[in-house]
Amino acid sequence: MNPEMAAGLATWGPIIIMIAIFYFLLYRPQKTAQKRRMSMLDSLEKHNKVMTIGGIYGTIVDLDDTKVKLKIAENTVIEVARSSINSNLTKEQQA
What we know:
By secondary structure, the protein is an alpha+beta fold. Helix content is 48%, strand content 29%. A hairpin with a 3-residue loop joins strand 2 (57-63) and strand 3 (67-73). The chain starts with a helix and ends with a helix.
């Protein structure tokens, strides 16, 4: 190994290692979680029990591409953004 190659490795080696660490510890797990969340949002159906990001529990009465109508009590239906659904309790109980 010649001195120029060793100097280049000493300069770029730590940077490449840091990029690899960021990829495996930050980017990849975040991408996996995002795919799992999008899959959950796409699988929502009527009569599923869900929880919103704000902690409101309800049952889906109607849904479209951007909005979900939740029945949270007798004669009480609210409309929330589809992206505000945090978890599908019906699917979690089945698993």
